[in-house]
Amino acid sequence: MNNSTFLCVDKRDARLAMAHMYVAFAALAIGGLMGLLQVFVRSGRFELPANIGYYQVLTVHGVMLGLVLTTFFILGFQAAAVSRTSGTFTAKQRLASWIGFWIMLLGTVMSATMILLNEATVLYTFYAPLQAHWIFYLGLTFIVVGSWFVIFAQLAKYAQWRKENKGEMSPLLTYMVVANSLMWFVATLGVAAEVLLQLLPWSLGFIERVDVAITRTLFWYFGHALVYFWLLPAYMAWYVVIPKVIGGKIFSDSLARLSFILFLLFSIPVGIHHQLTEPGITEFWKFVQVILTFMVIIPSLMTAFSMFATFELRGRELGGKGLFGWLHKLPWGDARFVVPFIGMAAFIPAGAGGIINASYQMNQVIHNTIWVTGHFHLTVATTVLLTFFGIAYWLIPHLTGRILTPQMNKLAIIQAFTWTFGMTIMSGAMHWVGLLGAPRRSSYSTYGDAEQALEWIPYQIAQAVGGTILFLGIILVLIIFVNLCWFAPKGDEEFPVGAIDKDAEKTPKILENWKVWITVLVALILVAYTVPIMDIINGGPLGSKGFKFW
Amino acid sequence: MHLHRYEKWWLTFGIGSLVLFLVIVGISAFHQGHQPPSSVKTINYEQVDKVAPFNEPGLKKVEGKDWDYELVVVASAFMYMPTEVEIPVGSTVKIIATTKDVVHGYGVAGTNINMMLEPGYVSEYVTTMDKTGEYLVVCNEYCGTGHHTMKMMYKVVDVNE
Ligand code: HEM
Ligand SMILES: [Cu+2]
Ligand SMILES: [Cu+2]
């Protein structure tokens, strides 16, 4: 990989990436505060002041953290990663990125305004036939369309690199950005179809009815890929950045690329695993998509292997002996390593939970219980987010021309442990009480003093305790963010990009042949979705008018 | 592409377990009939009250079927009809449910009964209630301001007592 030529992200690209970071961390602050309110309300000991509804707060939380924080952080990180490994953007590419950024921001403001006006209390999944104000849907459309501008600029940079470096393998980090961006594009086509062809004209009154099953199926065509879109940037850091941070090498270039290709292929034709308990889709097609879902285990196992191989090789290089002696040699005082490492560790229980969720029959035990909320606070809000924090601790100073001081490094590690502690309590309580049947997305209720519902309350108090500690974690990371943006001493913080182990095999050319992979992806999507969608369309009932029950 | 020897073992073991797991899930589903609720029956959601069986919500004894009772449930914001049922312990019940407005959930705490109710579709699930007690049914899909008040109660009783 010839990354030695571009050690530093160009100033103009740095400004672009930072713009995304400001929005992302602002979203974290707002969304985090909502999270705190939610756990308070659900404990039964606190009521929201005048006229603010629980579900309005929850909509803000889901939109800010699930959609805004993630999308902005990821696109900003990807812009920096491409600029760092494939060279600075051309003026045109940079302009396209900025246009995309502003469109996304405009969309965010539009949607957020409607939520605050209580015109869009439909939660971040906006399931029909609950009908939000059309400006909410248009805002979401802008977020998606804006993101297309940003990723097209990144894809254009990649294409340019390929042209200028004929016959060479592209830089690994750029390659990963390309895989994630392609996945995002193909997946967002589904939600774009849902919003543009159905929800938006319906909320404007151009069409009277929408087919609820179609909207949900299109949503989840997008929705599962969305969670991989969150995860893959974390994997980029694990595969490419962490080896450099610990002073080691990337275990295998080809395995890293292959695992990204597998994620791409099995990200979309699997969305029906979110609809296992729904009518209108037959058992056969549910089962087909469950099988496709489980294919993700293969790249996950590959990733786990690569990570531990990198750690062990490095630990032994430093003189670590015995079965686990190498573990002690890893840089346990370096936040850039420790924080994402905790994220990786959290992925072990999180992944196990995911297997249960996707397990066809077992899904019925946990579907729409608060177990699911516990699950994704481990996956996205711990594994992914701690890795993102770990990235921010070198990326932000790199972009702002500052450094991560030893004090901030220490605070970052304290932050990660605070997060882990709070999350263990909150997510643990959510998992447990979910198994007892407690529903998610529900304000405090004793259900008329039903015996079972009363048993859930201690767990809800535990969630409030854990959630409060988590909120403390959010304050800490915001302090570090502000420090790195405006107050840390000036200096040169490295953007760490690992080199490939010299013993690694040459990477097969096929991995860079996108025509092949896109064809396979489209074929898989057609196989998994054609019949279920045709069934819904052909057998579909009278569509639904809109309802506003809030 | 070359794989490290340990990686080959690791992946062989992993993929082997995965295949075994999927085979077990598949046999349980398609041979033993452990399927999630997947009815494809449709209905005009605006006419639910006028169409059988939904014009008479409640528990009904049936003869000559694989189940002993049919429990017909109509959901709407923010209630279920009926609000309470008494089910003889040990009986096999087919739950037949639908919604008159938005999407609702139907989760019976302490059991595996859990299904989505969507406008225009009938959701069905057959199960056996083999333990006495009170079971709280909650709406577990957000449906509006009163979502967390939407409930129903199963009383599974021993009729011989
Ligand atoms: C202070 C930290 C946090 C607290 C206390 C918190 C708490 C909660 C609670 C209690 C719920 C469930 C509410 C319900 O179902 O009734 C929830 C939902 C959710 N949280 Fe968090 N959370 C926090 C941070 C995060 C972060 C960092 C993310 C994402 C990166 C996140 C993403 C979500 C999402 C997507 C939902 C689902 C919303 C929905 O069901 O519509 N949360 N959170
Ligand atoms: Cu999924
Ligand atoms: Cu509800």
TrEMBL record, chain A:
GO molecular-function terms, A-Z: cytochrome-c oxidase activity; heme binding
- What are the alphabetically sorted keywords of the record? Electron transport, Membrane, Respiratory chain, Transmembrane, Transmembrane helix, Transport
- InterPro entries linked: Ba3-like_Oxidase_I, Cyt_c_oxase-like_su1_dom, Cyt_c_oxase-like_su1_sf, Cyt_C_Oxase_1
Q: Where is the Cytochrome oxidase subunit I profile domain?
A: 15-482
- CDD domains (UniProt xref): ba3-like_Oxidase_I (cd01660)
Source domain of life is: Bacteria
Which BP terms from GO are recorded? aerobic respiration
Q: What is this protein called?
A: Cytochrome C
From TrEMBL, chain B:
Q: What does this protein do?
A: Subunits I and II form the functional core of the enzyme complex. Electrons originating in cytochrome c are transferred via heme a and Cu(A) to the binuclear center formed by heme a3 and Cu(B).
State the compartments where it is located. Answer: Cell envelope
Primary localisation category:
other
Domain Cytochrome oxidase subunit II copper A binding as annotated: residue spans = 55-161
Please state the span of the N-terminal signal peptide per the UniProt entry. Answer: none
Which keywords does this Swiss-Prot/TrEMBL entry list? Copper, Membrane, Metal-binding, Transmembrane, Transmembrane helix
Give a Pfam family name. Answer: COX2
Q: Can you say what this protein is called?
A: Cytochrome aa3 subunit 2
Q: Which InterPro entries match?
A: CcO_II-like_C, Copper_CuA, Cupredoxin, NosZ/Cyto_c_oxidase_sub2
**GO cellular-component terms in the record?**
cell envelope; membrane
What is an example of a GO molecular function annotated in this UniProt entry? copper ion binding
Reaction equation(s) it catalyzes = 4 Fe(II)-[cytochrome c] + O2 + 8 H(+)(in) = 4 Fe(III)-[cytochrome c] + 2 H2O + 4 H(+)(out)
Organismal lineage? Bacteria, Bacillati, Bacillota, Bacilli, Bacillales
According to the record, the segments passing through the membrane are 9-30
* SUPFAM superfamilies attached to this UniProt entry: Cupredoxins
